[in-house]
Each structure stands twice: as C-alpha cells, then as structure tokens.
Amino acid sequence: MQTELLNLPWQIQVALAAGYSGYMLAYVGLRHTHRQIDTIFISVVFSLIASGAISLAARWSIESLYSAASAFAVTCIVAVTWRRWGRKLLTKALRGINLSWGNDDPSALVTLSLNSEYPISQIAVLLDDGTWLRCDNTAIFNDAPFAPFLLGPNGDVALYLTHEEKIGEEAKELKSVRDSHYGDRITYVPASQIRQINFRHVSR
Questions:
Q1: Residues 6+ apart with CB under 8 A from 131
Q2: Which residues are paired to 196 by β-bridges?
Q3: Are the beta carbons of 144 and 169 closer than 8 angstroms?
Q4: Span 138-193, pLDDT tens digits
Q5: Model confidence over 19-34: pLDDT tens digits?
Q6: Where are the domains of the chain?
Q7: C-alpha dihedral over 176, 178, 183, 184, to 10 degrees?
Q8: Which CB contacts under 8 angstroms, 24+ apart, belong to 115-122?
C-alpha cells in the first residue's frame, strides 16, 4: 500500500498529505471518538481543497514546488479557520433554524475544556474521598510545559496544584508548585478517583 501511494502522481500525493494534515488541525483534541471512516472522508474533503489549489496553480503556470507548497498551506489555513470559526458558525446556524442543538463534540467535558473563546481561568477537582484539588489561577502557568492543565479523553486530569482542601479542613495553599531550579510540579489525577470537575471561564 505504501509503495502504491509513492507511485501516484505528485499532485495526488500532495492532496492526500494536505488533506490528512488539514483533518489533524481541524479536529485536534476531538479525534479520539472518530471512526476510521470518519478520518478517511474528512481527510478527502480537505484533499479536495488542495486539489483545487493545485489546479489553479497549473492554470497560472506556477512551478510544481510552489504549487505543492501553496496547496498545502491553503488547506491548513482552511482547516484552522474551520476549527476556529466554522464549526461555531455552523452550530449557531443549525440552532437558529431549530434543526439541531448539538455541537458534535464527543462530550460536554471536551466542549468546556477545549474551547478557545472562553479560556479556563480556574479548575477544581473533587476526589472520591471528598478532597478538593484546585488551580486557582491557571494564567500563572501559561508558560509552564503543559499549560494550563491537561484533560485526557477518559476524564483524567493533570493540573498545577495550588490549593488542597480536605474534608473538615481549611484550604491549604501549596507554595512549592513553581521552582526556578526544578521547574513546575504538575499533579496527575486518574479518572477513577474523580467525582466532579469544576471550571471557571473568562471572556476574552
């Protein structure tokens, strides 16, 4: 199969590569629920954009190298535009005509955590034993290696733990999260130990 792909005309190879790259960009963080058929057909849709760019470049007698580069770039730009604004506008349009109120995200947790319009300013995790783990100001860790926190597809969480509150005790501030020598300490919480996750969002 790999050999057959390499034997295809360069235009098709570029279109396929650009199409898959566009899919990866447009659905980053959302792909874990996609089936193989979803990946294939969404990639094909983005490949059509690359093919169109290559055809236009051929009409304008642009050299192959520049044609391939421009097709790849255009496809990636369209993918980013779709992810940043397109999906949201389509959702609003479907709601406006009362066709659908779903947003097609895998879960509400994904919608809350992966949005770029309303960044998460605070995260609090309630454990099974009643302990609250919090990062009261995620903006402090915007320059941290895994900023501002991580949320796995199965619901596990990794956060920069600034406050811990056990049952019957006052919240304790942890002041050793950031260290100029050792770096930033991140805390991993398995999904099996999590009872509830709270977010606060700010509007840009």
A1: 164, 165, 166, 167
A2: 126
A3: no
A4: 999 999 999 889 988 788 999 999 999 999 899 999 989 999 899 999 999 999 99
A5: 999 999 999 878 878 8
A6: 2-96, 108-201
A7: 100
A8: 115/201, 116/84, 117/88, 117/203, 117/204, 118/201, 118/202, 118/203, 118/204, 119/148, 119/201, 119/202, 119/204, 120/148, 120/149, 120/199, 120/200, 120/201, 121/200, 121/201, 121/202, 122/198, 122/199, 122/200
Q: Do 53 and 71 meet the contact criterion of CB atoms below 8 Å apart? A: yes
> Model-level pTM?
0.70
Tokens standing for residue 159:
């956060």
The confidence band for 7, taking pLDDT boundaries of 50, 70 and 90, is confident
Tokens for 6, please give them.
């390499």
Per-residue pLDDT tens digits for 71-111: 999 999 999 999 989 988 988 898 889 887 777 777 777 77
Write the class of the CATH domain 108-201: mainly beta
User: What's the rounded Cα separation, in Å, for the pair 140 and 147?
Assistant: 9
Helix ranges restricted to H, the chain? 2-6, 10-26, 36-59, 64-81, 87-96, 108-113
Distance, in Å, from the CA atom of 101 to the CA atom of 179, rounded to the nearest integer, reads 45
Which residue is listed with tokens 């100029």? 180
- Reduced DSSP (H G I as helix, E B as strand, rest coil) percent helix, strand, coil of the chain, to 5: 45, 20, 35
**Pair of tokens at residue 169:** 């005790």
